[in-house]
Structures are given as structure tokens and as C-alpha cells.
Amino acid sequence: MLPIISEEWLDSYFAVVDQMNASDLVQKYYFGQSSFQFGNYVPVIGQSNIENLLSNFYSSVKRMRHEKVAVLIANDRALFEARVHFVTDKGNAVEIPAASVIELLEGRVKSFRMYMDTALLNTK
């Protein structure tokens, strides 16, 4: 069976993430029942809730860029390991290791679980 998710899909997805436009990201990659979970927070469900969550996060940093470290793919899900490079709202550069588990349904994100310690963003 060919993978439903591919490294090319992931590269395209994270390129849009790094543009920090929540509306574009959600419209292109999510659907009405998608879920997004950031670390140990309660998952949010639905496009408008995901867009609000991401918009709030994006407003807390000036820039970000995902540097791919490793990818594991199994059919409809992927594990994406990255070093995420941020420029904080104070102008400081911060690099944070991160991992995401992404599940697709018909080419769109069914479930996105992001694991990253954002404490450094608040201290720099």
C-alpha cells in the first residue's frame, strides 16, 4: 500500500505553517472535524477553533521556520521531528526541538499533535 501522506506533503504543509497565516493554513489543510493538540493542552476541534489557536500563537512570535530532522511515515500518519527556529517578539533567536504526529483523512489533517516546550519563547 502506498502512503497516503508523503514527505512532499509534509514539506508543503510546514512551508505554509512557517508563513504564519492561520487562515490560509486551516483553509488549505484542515476540515470541520479536524483536531489540533498542542502538548498537554486539551485538543481543539474544528477549523475556526484551530485558526484561533494558531492565530494566538503566531501573534506571540515574529518569525518561525521548521528545520526537518527526521520523518517516519505509515499510511495515513506521520511523525515529523524538527528544530523550530523562532524570532521572539523581543527580537531574540530561539531554537526548540519539536515533534508532530499528523494523521490525514482524504488528504487533509484529521489530527495534529504537536510536542514542543515553548517555555523558552517566554524567557528570551
Summarize this structure as a short list of keywords or feature phrases:
124 residues, alpha+beta, Nuclear Transport Factor 2, Chain: A, 6-stranded mixed β-sheet, 6 strands, globular
Characterise this structure.
By secondary structure, this protein is of the alpha+beta class. The protein has one domain: Roll (Nuclear Transport Factor 2, Chain: A), CATH 3.10.450. The chain is built from four helices and six strands. Strands 2-1-6-5-4-3 form a six-stranded mixed β-sheet. A hairpin with a 2-residue loop joins β3 and β4.
At a glance:
The protein has 124 residues and is an alpha+beta fold.
CATH architecture assignment name: Roll
Question: Order of strands in the sheet with the most strands?
Answer: 2-1-6-5-4-3
Number of strands: 6
Which residues sit in consecutive blocks of at least 5 with pLDDT less than 50? none
CATH topology: Nuclear Transport Factor 2, Chain: A
CATH class designation: Alpha Beta
Supply the number of helical segments: 4
Gap from first CA to last CA: 46 Å
General shape: globular
Rounded mean pLDDT is 94
Element string (H = helix, E = strand): HHEEHEEEEH
- The assigned structural class equals alpha+beta
Question: How many strands, what sense, and barrel or not for the largest sheet?
Answer: 6 strands, mixed
Strand content: over 45%
